[in-house]
Amino acid sequence: MRVIISAGGTGGHIYPALAIINKIKEKEPDSEFLYIGTHNRMEKDIVPEKGIPFKSIEMYGFNKRHLFKNFKTVKCLFKAFKDCRKMIKEFNPDVVIGVGGYVTVPVIMSAKKLGYKTFLHEQNALPGKSNKFLSKYCDLIGVSFESSLKYMPSGKAVMTGNPCSEDALRVPSLVKSSLSLSSSKKLVLIVMGSLGAGRVSKFLENELLKFKDKDYEILFVTGKSSYDDVMSHSYPDNVKIIPFYEGLTRVMKKTDLMVSRAGASTLSEIIALKVPTILIPSPYVANNHQYLNALDLVNKEAAFMIEEKDLQDGVLFKQVDSLIYDNKKLSEIKDNLQKMQVKDSATLIYENLKGLINSNEKDK
Fold first, then answer.
1. Which of 12, 123, 177, 340 matches a 20 to 30 Å C-alpha distance to 97?
2. Range 169-340: architecture per CATH
3. 321, 258 in Cβ contact below 8 A?
């Protein structure tokens, strides 16, 4: 299979794209790929490190505050269309995939105008602006939440789940002693993303003190930017602080209760691994999509939510401390998460891609 894939800007777009690539490689080892991303975002470093051919285009999002900057954006967009047409013609793919971010706009539109089959994947409950715009230019759309289906053109969208979920199931579990954690005590994992996490970390500096003498352990993954500030304080012996952990899904497999942001990839892992979670959605993201992601789980009684504005003294502690001992409630949450699972999400996406390619052959 020859595949052009495009996604950019955030890990929430990039890692699902990589999960799709990995599944195609697994199914068809001789497949060839071209990843088209932006010239100055994180994909320019992550993708080449994976050994995936990468080409960049200069792209910027439209600026609502400084309208004059949009002249450069429009100029870059026209050049991006020209560059994408050339790249696509030269590579001659079987299918072109967009996995989110404004960089996908010239890629998918160019591919469609050139007559290539196109597939979009949407990770969030509320589709992003790029995917909503591109939905009329693509042949098929995979969504991660059932609530997303109503935003997409009738007959074009299929429920695929998030391909990151399949990767999460494959990784081995953490050996708790490797992080100096007890194998006999329950574990509460607290993980905050980088965006706006400083405020939550500040709140947790005092909140974590309340867990003193509890018979369960807390592992707080601060993120590298907040670690030094957090570690300038002292904490109870049952609270462990680390800046980062590569392959966090390994820890999640040993977690009894998690406190987390509500990014799409994280939620896909929570659902796949059935981890009871208190979600604190980031209010600093476009269209408040983390809140809507979290709400999708809350409405199905598959998670709890505390909005960041409601993080008052003792609120998180009380909810964690009541839930960690409520085995019946934790079991109910796991059952509800299981009902949300899409088995073999990446495989389902692969099968839909094969269907698109085969339909293209019939059209010829």
1. 340
2. 3-Layer(aba) Sandwich (3.40)
3. no
